[in-house]
Each structure stands twice: as structure tokens, then as C-alpha cells.
Design brief:
alpha/beta; globular; ten-stranded mixed beta sheet; 44% helix
Length: 330
């Protein structure tokens, strides 16, 4: 039988060995990832966030050779359902979210109750991409510039009708901000995405949308609709005949949709850094840049610290815009 001293010594040895084994299996920046990483897209399949998440994670392979990403769509409640899933996940580096501007900067002021706090419950690793919005009108409308549209809209009995993919989205808030600043009487007509908004515009049910360029770039190029201005600070490279909002007469109107890649809080910082470095390298890849530009997006790559600072600035900015719109959701 072991003496008490021998028992304690053997127990200490086993505990030390267990601690060493645990430390060896803990995720670190050097050995991550060792198995597939789940990336939650908190929106339905086929939308811009889903498409871009799949393209980016596929193109990341040369810059993160051991990585395999599995996209999981967990849509509902403006992205809140999928976000809650990620916030509750283990902080081991194997659950990731494409956290959009809505999740990070708009929903906190739009929804009366949220089960998560994007600032404290997510560990932001890197910005992934940005997309401009574009002011579009039906091709049949007798206007060709933003100024002409404003003049035309002021003459319409009952004002104009604008569409968006839902209350509290950047297209809704962008159009609300625009019509208010332009002095237009306007009615908001929400849809369930561009698949409904575009046919409504072609039927003449709505007069305006300021929506994600990626959803309408094909219809603009085909001449089905007119693009009056983009909401970036510079002209969009693949549609450089379209003026910016500033060039079209609307100062201080730079609005982009964006997403960052974030893990559950507590994920080891070396993992965040490793993904950030890979994303920064991918953002400089010419083929990747062109692939995203053609569908209306621009690749990004930032450090975790830069990502947090950017999200905080956007959050402060959109708080006032949401409140001014009067939009609220349960």
C-alpha cells in the first residue's frame, strides 16, 4: 500500500502530466486549425453575405493551408439567431461568424431586446469585406441624375415609395436618411430581399431603392434599372460612370455594408491574429480582388484591434441614424 507521502507525490505527478497534456491540446496560433472550422452565416443561403463568406473561405486556402471551413446558415431575426449560436459556442477557434454591420452596429439600437452584446460577446478578428449601396430607380422613370429624381419626387402627389430588404437594414436606413435630407415625402415598403424588390421596381410599385450594389449590378448593366449614385467616397471601379453621392449633390453620404469575422469571446488571441494575417494577405491577392469587385464587394483585412476600433466607430455613427429613422423591432 502506498504511504500518504507516496500517494500525494504520485497524484501531483498525474495532475502535472494532465496539465501538460491539456496545454498541449489547447488551441494556439501555431497549430490552429487542426480540424474543420464552422463559419456561421446568420442569413439565408444565396444572399450576399452567404456568397461572400463561401468565396472568401475558399480563397483563404493558400494563405491558411491547414484550414477547412464549413459554412452553416442559421438565419432569422435580422441575424440575431445565428449570432446567439456563436456567442454560446466554445471559444476554441472552431466556430466563427460573418458578423455584418447589422449585427455589430445597427441591431443594438434597432431591437428592444437582444440575447447578446456584439461588443463583449464576440472576439473580432478581421474585417472581411465592404459593399457599397447604390441609388437605383426604374428605367422608365424620366430622370437620369439624383438632382432630377429629387425634383421629380417633390412633384409626386403623396410623395415617393422606396423599397428595402427589411426594417432596420442599411438599405432602409440609407433611403430614410436620403429622403429626409432631400426633403422628400416618402413611404417605406419593405420586402424580403432583392428577389422581391427588383420585380417591384420593374412593375413601378416603388420609385427608389438604395440597396447593396451586389444585388443589382446585373440589372444595372442590362439596363433594367438606372443607377444614379453609389454611396462610397470614390467611384466604384467596375461601374465608374456612376457618380458618388457627393458628386451627385449629397454631401457626407458615405454608407457601406460590411462584415467582420469574429469568434466567441475568450478565443485565444493568437488564433485571431493568425486569421487576421491570412485575411490581410488575401485582400492583396489580385484575382481575389477582381472576383469580389465583379459582384460588388471589396476585400478587406485588418488586425483585431483595427477591427474593434472600426466597429466601435460604426456603432456610434449608426446609433443616431437608427434613432432618427424611428425604426424599432422586438
Amino acid at each position: 500500500m502506498l504511504s500518504r507521502r507516496a500517494f500525494l507525490a504520485s497524484t501531483s505527478t498525474m495532475l502535472a502530466g494532465g496539465s501538460i497534456a491539456s496545454a498541449q491540446t489547447a488551441p494556439t496560433g501555431t497549430d490552429w486549425p487542426q480540424r474543420p472550422v464552422r463559419i456561421v452565416v446568420p442569413y439565408p443561403p444565396g444572399g450576399s453575405v452567404d456568397i461572400l463568406a463561401r468565396i472568401i473561405t475558399t480563397n483563404l486556402k493558400p494563405h491558411l493551408p491547414t484550414a477547412t471551413f464549413v459554412v452553416e446558415n442559421r438565419s432569422g431575426a435580422g441575424g440575431n439567431i445565428g449570432t446567439d449560436v456563436v456567442c454560446q459556442a466554445a471559444p476554441d477557434g472552431y466556430t466563427l461568424i460573418a458578423a455584418t454591420i447589422g449585427i455589430s452596429a445597427i441591431n443594438p439600437f434597432l431591437y428592444r431586446r437582444l440575447s447578446y452584446n456584439a461588443q463583449t460577446d464576440l472576439a473580432q478578428a478581421t474585417l472581411a469585406y465592404e459593399m457599397p449601396n447604390v441609388a437605383i430607380v426604374p428605367a422608365a422613370l424620366p430622370v437620369n441624375t439624383l438632382a432630377e429624381f429629387i425634383a421629380w419626387g417633390k412633384k409626386q402627389p403623396g410623395g415617393i415609395v422606396y423599397g428595402s430588404p427589411g426594417v432596420g437594414t442599411t438599405p432602409h436606413l440609407s433611403a430614410s436618411m436620403f429622403t429626409s435630407r432631400a426633403g422628400l415625402e416618402a413611404t417605406h415598403l419593405p420586402f424580403r430581399g432583392a428577389a422581391e424588390t427588383l420585380p417591384a421596381m420593374l412593375r413601378g410599385d416603388i420609385h427608389l431603392a438604395i440597396d447593396n450594389l451586389s444585388s443589382y449590378i446585373a440589372a444595372i448593366r442590362s439596363g433594367q434599372i438606372k443607377a444614379l449614385a453609389v454611396t462610397t467616397d470614390e467611384r466604384w471601379p467596375t461601374l465608374n460612370t456612376i457618380p458618388t453621392m457627393k458628386e451627385a449633390g449629397m454631401d457626407d453620404f458615405v454608407v457601406t455594408s460590411w462584415a467582420n469575422f469574429a469568434f466567441p469571446k475568450g478565443t485565444p488571441h493568437p488564433i485571431l491574429d493568425k486569421l487576421s494575417v491570412a485575411m490581410k494577405a488575401l485582400a492583396t491577392d489580385t484575382a481575389h480582388q477582381q472576383q469580389l469587385l465583379q459582384i460588388g464587394a471589396r476585400p478587406l483585412g485588418t488586425t483585431p484591434e483595427e477591427t474593434v476600433a472600426f466597429s466601435n466607430r460604426e456603432r456610434a455613427r449608426w446609433e443616431g441614424i437608427v434613432k432618427a429613422s424611428g425604426a424599432t423591432l422586438d
